[in-house]
Design a protein that fits this description.
Elements lengths: L2 H16 L3 E4 L6 E4 L16 H10 L6 H8 L1 H10 L3
Antiparallel strand pairs: 1-2
């Protein structure tokens, strides 16, 4: 393989990875959203911060990405508390 071919192939791989967007369904509300795993700074979840305990609860309860609306709702402590202690899976 020539150097030009290797660079072109590497560029193709990088473009595939960086533009990777996934259509997902939120396991909490069942709405569709786009996960931008290849462009995390523009993903719908970017900038929402959770404590380690909040992250642990969400990861234990939901085994897939949540939509931005659900993440923002869970940031409200009373909603997270109710869901954690009063809702069943």
């Amino acid at each position: 393989m020539h150097e030009r071919d290797i660079l072109h192939h590497t560029s193709d791989i990088n473009n595939i990875f960086m533009s990777k967007h996934e259509k997902k369904q939120c396991p909490r509300c069942k709405k569709s959203f786009e996960c931008k795993v290849g462009d995390i700074a523009n993903c719908q979840c970017f900038g929402i911060a959770f404590t380690e305990n909040e992250k642990a609860f969400i990861e234990e309860r939901y085994h897939a990405c949540l939509c931005r609306a659900c993440l923002l709702e869970l940031k409200q402590r009373d909603i997270l508390f109710k869901e954690k202690y009063f809702h069943t899976k």
